[in-house]
UniProtKB/TrEMBL annotation:
Domain DUF58 residues, every copy: 208-384
Protein name: DUF58 domain-containing protein
Species assigned in the record: Fibrella aquatilis
UniProt keyword annotations, A-Z: Membrane, Transmembrane, Transmembrane helix
Coiled coil: none
Pfam families reported in the protein's UniProt record: DUF58
Keyword Membrane: yes
Taxonomic lineage of the native organism: Bacteria, Pseudomonadati, Bacteroidota, Cytophagia, Cytophagales
SUPFAM superfamilies: vWA-like
Keyword rRNA-binding among UniProt keywords: no
Length: 453
C-alpha cells in the first residue's frame, strides 16, 4: 500500500496512453498497424516496470535515505518583508533524477505556485531558495515538502514527503528595524530617506572641551580655556562639544480602533504603525532615550513604561506581536487619563491614528489639546493613496468627474486636519503608509535636533 500511495503518473505517460488509444482506433482502418502497436505497447509496459523497479527498489543506501529533503526557515518571519526560505535536496540514486518539489506553505499566503523543478545527478545536493512576504502577524503552519522523483524517462513518479507540520510565528518587521539600525550605526540613513538635520543653537548637554577643527561653530569657542592654553605656551582654539540630551521619554501611542483596519499594499494601517513604532523605539534607544508604548481602542490595551533596560526592545517586540484590531469607536478620553496617570515626565508622544474627516478630528481635539499641554504631541495619520491615484487619473466620463470631485473633497479634508492641528500648536505628519517609517524617524530626529524634547 505504501508503494501505491507513493506512485504517481506523469503527464508524459498520459499523453502516450492517449496516443496509443488514437493509434488503435486508426488501426481498425489499417490492420497492418495492429501488430506494430501491440509490440510498442508491450515495450511501454516493460519500460514502466523497469522504471518502477528503479524508483522503488530501495529506500536507503547504506545507512542514508535514498532521497532526502529539508526546509530551512528563520525562527520567526518578519511581517511585510521578504523572508528567505531554503529547500535542501540530496539524491543518492545511481542515475540522474529529475524532481518536482511542491512546498505546502501556510494558507495565509493563498498561493498555489510554490512548485519547483530541478535535476540532480547521483550523490548531488542542491539548494532551492525562494521568498515569502507575510502580511499578517500570528502563527503560520507549514505543511509537508512533497518531492516527486523520476527517472530520465519521466513516465512514473515516486513521492517523498518531509518536514510535516512546522509552525513559525510572524512578528512585526524586525528586518526593517535591523536595516535602520545598521544604517544608523554606519551613518547611511539617508539611503532610506532620512534627512540630515542641521542643529540649531546649543539646546544640548555639554559633553567636553576639545581642540577646534575646521567646520566647528565659532559660537562654541571657549575663550577662557583657549586663554589658559595660551598661558602654558600651547597655541590653538578650544571649543565646547555638546551631545544630545539623553534619557528623554518617547512613547508610541497606537490606535487599534476600526480606522486602523484599512488595507494598503497587503498590510493594514495598524501593521504599518506597529512596524514604524518598532523602528522608532530602536532608534530612540540608540539615541540614549527611553522608549515606551501604549495601545488603545475603546479601552486601554498594553502599557509599557519608557525604559532603557537590557531586553527592553525584546519586550516591546513581544507586546507588538500580540496586538489586534478592535472594531469599536476609539476612546481618546481613556487615552488622556492613562497618559496623565502613567507618564509623569514630559515626553514625546507619537500618536498613530487616522482621521478621514475634519469632524472626526474635532470630536477628539479637546483630548489632543490636553495631551499637548503636558507633553510634546505628534499626531501621525495616513494619506489615502488610492484617492491620490484617482486624482492623478484624468476623468474619462461624467461619472469619472463626480468621482474625482468626491476624492478631492476627502483630500481637502486631510489638508484641513493638518491646519487645524497646527492652529493649536500640535505637530502632525500626513504620510502615505509606505513612507510612514522614514517620515516618523525624520520628524523624531528633527524634534531632537531642535531640543524640543
Amino acid at each position: 500500500m505504501k508503494v501505491f500511495r507513493a506512485l504517481f503518473v506523469s503527464l508524459r505517460l498520459w499523453l502516450l496512453l492517449l496516443g496509443f488509444v488514437l493509434a488503435f482506433v486508426v488501426a481498425y482502418a489499417f490492420p497492418l498497424l495492429f501488430p506494430v502497436l501491440q509490440i510498442a505497447f508491450v515495450v511501454l509496459l516493460l519500460l514502466l516496470l523497469i522504471e518502477g523497479f528503479l524508483l522503488f527498489r530501495q529506500n536507503t543506501v547504506g545507512s542514508q535515505p535514498v532521497f532526502f529533503a529539508r526546509r530551512e526557515l528563520p525562527e520567526r518571519l518578519s511581517n511585510g518583508d521578504d523572508n528567505p526560505v531554503t529547500l535542501y535536496l540530496e539524491s543518492r540514486y545511481p542515475f540522474a533524477t529529475p524532481v518536482e518539489i511542491i512546498d505546502e506553505i501556510p494558507v495565509q499566503f493563498q498561493r498555489r505556485d510554490v512548485l519547483f523543478t530541478a535535476q540532480l545527478t547521483p550523490n548531488q545536493a542542491r539548494a532551492i531558495r525562494y521568498e515569502l512576504r507575510p502580511t499578517r502577524r500570528g502563527e503560520y503552519s507549514f505543511g509537508a515538502i512533497n518531492v516527486f522523483v523520476m527517472t530520465p524517462l519521466r513516465l512514473l513518479k515516486r513521492r517523498f514527503q518531509f518536514e510535516t507540520g512546522q509552525m513559525v510565528p510572524v512578528y512585526p518587521s524586525f528586518l526593517q528595524m535591523r536595516q535602520y539600525e545598521l544604517l544608523a550605526v554606519s551613518n547611511r540613513l539617508t539611503e532610506l530617506g532620512i534627512k540630515r538635520i542641521r542643529r540649531v543653537g546649543h539646546s544640548m548637554e555639554f559633553e567636553q572641551i576639545r581642540p577646534y577643527t575646521q567646520g566647528d561653530d565659532l559660537r562654541s569657542i571657549n575663550w577662557k580655556a583657549t586663554a589658559r592654553r595660551a598661558d602654558v605656551g600651547q597655541a590653538g582654539l578650544i571649543v565646547n562639544a555638546y551631545q544630545d540630551e539623553r534619557s528623554q521619554g518617547v512613547y508610541c501611542l497606537i490606535d487599534k480602533g476600526r480606522v486602523m483596519q484599512s488595507p494598503f499594499g497587503g498590510l493594514t494601517l495598524l501593521d504599518y504603525a506597529i512596524n514604524a513604532s518598532l523602528v522608532l523605539s530602536n532608534i530612540a534607544l540608540m539615541k540614549q532615550d527611553r522608549a515606551g508604548l501604549i495601545t488603545f481602542s475603546e479601552r486601554i490595551g498594553q502599557v509599557v513604561p519608557a525604559e532603557r533596560r537590557p531586553g527592553h526592545m525584546q519586550k516591546l517586540l513581544e507586546v507588538l506581536y500580540r496586538q489586534k484590531t478592535r472594531f469599536l469607536e476609539t476612546d481618546f478620553e481613556a487615552l488622556y487619563t492613562t497618559v496623565r496617570t502613567q507618564v509623569r515626565q514630559r515626553s514625546l508622544l507619537l500618536l498613530f491614528t487616522n482621521f478621514e474627516t475634519l469632524n472626526g478630528l474635532q470630536r477628539q481635539l479637546p483630548y489632543l489639546r490636553r495631551l499637548a499641554k503636558d507633553h510634546l504631541l505628534l499626531v501621525i495619520f495616513f494619506d489615502n493613496t488610492e484617492l491620490r491615484s484617482l486624482l492623478d487619473t484624468p476623468a474619462a466620463n461624467t461619472e469619472g468627474v463626480y468621482m474625482k470631485t468626491i476624492a478631492e473633497k476627502f483630500a481637502y479634508e486631510k489638508r484641513q486636519i493638518v491646519k487645524e492641528l497646527q492652529q493649536y500648536g500640535i505637530a502632525s505628519i500626513l504620510t502615505a503608509p509606505q513612507d510612514l517609517t522614514a517620515n516618523t524617524v525624520n520628524k523624531y530626529l528633527e524634534l531632537k535636533a531642535r531640543g524640543m524634547i
